[in-house]
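Q: what sequence does this backbone want?
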């Protein structure tokens, strides 16, 4: 809490300094130095505000690593901003060091949020493998981007191939990581095994798409017969279906999940056919319309699943009534009399049979999420089936 108060004070003082110095610069047409001080104060205020939000994330049990990463990224972005404001980049070697610093800040801004999401979900058993792979993908992507940026600045070597490789690894790698969610739980029934097979198909297709894409980048192959697009589509469909399946829905809401997944499959098929037919010089106007319509349905359905997830979670977070339970109505197994007894230790008034009762809050066996009054069949926090948690308890 003292750190948070300090950040608030720094933010307020920086805002005040920015306002005063900006007003002085406008009224008296001062030199660039005043404007630079004003810009530095504004950047300090913004950094303090963002760091305050990151410190709140650190207070959560599974958010400390993500919060630390956010703090480090905010500090680096702040130092880069000050570096540009005061033109310290002139001290760096290279042809365009200012552009290199600015691009480095952009790459850090792009790669940090996905990495935070991976760190946030890493403690969950259902997402541990996916999070580890996602972190590797993010680290590889930002490394390729940074190397391409600074090699171009220092040695004058164009880094287009490295930039394209980073795009291939980053975007398709996210689909591979998404397909890996839940792969540690193959399941026993036919439906669970089918979902497990879909995840594996998405992973294999994504890895093949990365390999094919890197081969095309480094061999200057620009044409696509549809194979690469199809591999990407399979990985994306598997990821989308995997994420849709994790949404905690009531039995009456299951149709939305099925419709959204089906629309996603239709969108992928439409895109693949468009690419294939376009390469064969065929008319694809109807296919474009179908793919666009399916994509719109997929987007709306996915947003609806997010909304329902939050709504169902609010219901599950209703306070339990364990403290209000004072008695229980039951039938004595010895004499068959229906009676109301005090919770805990009691005895049948007729046959004197000693009866002991105990009540416990239902919690997820994986993440300890409270399942009381939950309407869905899966834990909204980690996706573990509710039946599995109840049987384990």
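A:
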């Amino acid at each position: 809490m003292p750190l948070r108060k300090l950040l608030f004070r720094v933010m307020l003082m920086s805002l005040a300094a920015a306002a005063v110095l900006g007003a002085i610069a406008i009224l008296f047409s001062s030199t660039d130095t005043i404007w630079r001080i004003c810009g530095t104060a504004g950047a300090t205020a913004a950094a303090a505000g963002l760091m305050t939000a990151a410190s709140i994330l650190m207070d959560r049990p599974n958010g400390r690593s993500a919060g630390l990463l956010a703090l480090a990224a905010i500090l680096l972005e702040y130092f880069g901003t000050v570096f540009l404001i005061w033109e310290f980049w002139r001290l760096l070697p290279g042809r365009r060091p200012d552009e290199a610093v600015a691009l480095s800040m952009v790459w850090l801004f792009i790669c940090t949020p996905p990495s935070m999401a991976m760190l946030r979900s890493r403690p969950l058993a259902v997402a541990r493998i996916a999070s580890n792979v996602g972190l590797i993908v993010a680290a590889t992507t930002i490394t390729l981007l940074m190397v391409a940026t600074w090699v171009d600045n220092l040695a004058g070597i164009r880094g287009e191939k490295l930039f394209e490789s980073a795009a291939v690894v980053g975007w398709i790698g996210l689909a591979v990581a998404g397909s890996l969610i839940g792969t540690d739980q193959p399941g026993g029934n036919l439906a669970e095994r089918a979902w497990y097979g879909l995840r594996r198909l998405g992973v294999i297709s994504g890895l093949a798409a990365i390999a094919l894409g890197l081969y095309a980048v480094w061999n200057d192959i620009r044409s696509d017969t549809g194979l690469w697009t199809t591999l990407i589509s399979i990985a994306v469909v598997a990821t989308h279906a995997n994420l849709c399946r994790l949404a905690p829905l009531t039995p009456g809401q299951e149709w939305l999940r099925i419709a959204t997944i089906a629309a996603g499959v239709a969108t992928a098929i439409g895109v693949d056919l468009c690419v294939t037919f376009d390469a064969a010089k065929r008319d694809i106007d109807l296919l474009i319309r179908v793919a666009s319509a399916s994509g719109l349905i997929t987007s709306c359905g996915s947003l609806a699943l997010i909304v329902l997830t939050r709504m169902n979670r609010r219901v599950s977070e209703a306070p339990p009534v364990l403290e209000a339970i004072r008695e229980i109505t039951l039938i004595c197994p010895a004499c068959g009399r229906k009676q109301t007894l005090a919770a805990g230790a009691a005895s049948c008034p007729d046959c004197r049979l000693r009866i002991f009762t105990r009540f416990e809050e239902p919690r997820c066996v994986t993440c300890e999420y409270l399942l009381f009054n939950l309407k869905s069949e899966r834990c909204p926090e980690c996706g573990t089936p509710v039946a599995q948690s109840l049987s384990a308890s």
